[in-house]
Amino acid sequence: MNQLREFEQKLEESESEQDRLTALIKIGQHITENLRSKVSQPYLEEAIKLALKLDNQSLYLKAQCLLSKTLYFIENYDDAINICWKAVETARILKDKRSEFDLLTRLGAIYGLLGDHTRSSEHFTNALHLSRRINNPKLIAQGLVNKGNILVLQSKLEKAREIFEKAEHYFNESGNELSNGFLNLNLGEVLRRQGHYHDALNRFEKALKVSKKLNHISMMITCHRNTGHTYRTLREFDKAEKHFLKGLHLAEKDSLKYSIRDMLGSLKRLYTEIGNYERAFEMLDRLTTISDVIYEDNTKMRIAESEQEFNLKMRCKEAEILKQQTKELATAKAETETALNLLRSTEEQILEIEHIHSSLNIAVTANHEINQPLMILVGNLNLIEILCKDSLTSQQSGYIKKIESSVEDISTILRKYRNLTPEASSIR
Asked: Quick one: which of 158, 182, 211, 292 is 20 to 30 A from 36 by CA?
């Protein structure tokens, strides 16, 4: 508690959002791993929001993992599954295989508790494959436990026992008390199903000691439940009742609805078997109430999932429509650009034609303006030659011929311009 108070003080004194995020994670981790209480939930939910705001993916993943563990401990399985999947996506983005392994294992455990053995086996298998790709003895051991859990779901008890005993060797070397506790619990259940009741009780007792030391409530409840089932089979009903009632008390103390249901069901069957029908009916009445609560919660969850699925389909449909509209818009834009380019080209051609037309008009006008005085000049030269034919000297005749040659050159040039005038007319 002193350490928790120290973390809370750092949270109060945090000057930046990053410092606050770090403090929230530490508080959530301390409560989750030591007290296993739902008290950590608001801290971790705030940490997730703050990590998203700061775009801190690593702490976002850590907060998700811790929150999924908390929800698992308090048997809020629906929200735990949802958070687990979000965390798996984050872990894959960050390529954090260790976190992904833990999350897949947790999903396998949750689905197993919910009785969905197909999904449970699927997630345990995926976690097992992942553990083989990570060179870590602890994960290999946990992967073996996952494989054993799959075999238990398949009722292959002897093979499951061999796998669990092999995993036990790894856990003993690593000194991981929590893993050893769960392994003893798993081995005890296999032994119980095989009829080795006293060996099973021994395993459950070891697991119970670990769970009490670590204050692991869900493990404690499971130990009492399995021990109770074993004593009931051995017809030691007083001992069975004692363990079932202890498990029920722990479950009710933390409002663990699935464990409450399991314990009430176990007590109902026990009281029915020993002929205590009054207590059996009492347990049945309470069992009906808690089952209705669970059914209502599950119904709400299914409705929420259906709404979520519908919204997802709608978003996909909207995305498809938007994609089509974007494609059509891109096509229209391309067609518009093509039309604009054609228009620009046409405008350029028109300007060029107008320029040519203007030039030709100038040429025609110039031709006319030059040709008129030129004709007068030619006429006067002819008149001089006629009137002064006999009086012109050879030098004067030479000048006249030069003038006539120049006039002819000018006439040739003007004829060339006159040949352009039809084109000018056709252009116009």
From this structure: 292
Token duo for residue 114: 């919910």
pLDDT for the residue 419: 66
- Taken in order of first residue, the domains within the chain and their CATH numbers are 1-95 (1.25.40.10)
Nearest residue to 163 via CA among 143, 180, 179? 143
Query: In which region does residue 112 sit, left (phi positive, over 0), alpha (psi from -120 to 50) or beta (all else)?
Result: alpha
Our measurement of the distance from residue 293's CA atom to the centroid of its chain's CA atoms, rounded to an integer in Å, reads 32
Instruction: Tell me if 405 sits within 8 A of 334, measured CB to CB.
Output: no
**Model confidence pLDDT, tens digit, residues 131-172:** 888 877 777 788 888 888 888 878 899 999 998 888 887 777
Q: Are 201 and 227 in contact (CB under 8 A)?
A: yes
C-alpha dihedral sign at 318, 320, 324, 329? positive
Asked if residue 309 has pLDDT above 70, the reply is: no
Q: What is the pLDDT of residue 175?
A: 64
Distance CA 379, CA 403 (A): 12
Model confidence pLDDT, tens digit, residues 191-247 = 999 999 999 999 999 999 999 988 888 899 999 999 999 999 999 999 999 999 999
* Angle value at C-alpha 126, between 177 and 258, nearest 5 degrees: 60
Angle at which helices 17-30 and 57-73 cross, to 10°: 30
- Single out the residue of 254, 255, 264, 267 nearest to residue 289, CA to CA: 264
The span from the first CA to the last CA of the chain, in angstroms, equals: 100
pTM above the 0.85 mark?
no
Q: What is the pLDDT of residues 231-268, one digit of tens each?
A: 999 999 999 999 999 999 999 998 888 899 999 999 99
Q: Is the dihedral of CA 88, 89, 90, 93 positive or negative?
A: positive
Task: Please give the C-alpha separations between residue 269 and each of 233, 243, 286, 294, in angstroms, as whole numbers.
Answer: 12, 14, 13, 20
**Distance in angstroms (rounded) separating the CA atoms of residues 318 and 158:** 53
- Is there a contact between 130 and 105 (Cβ–Cβ < 8 Å)? no
Query: Residues for the chain: how many in total?
Result: 428
Q: What is the rounded radius of gyration, in angstroms, for the C-alpha atoms of the chain?
A: 48
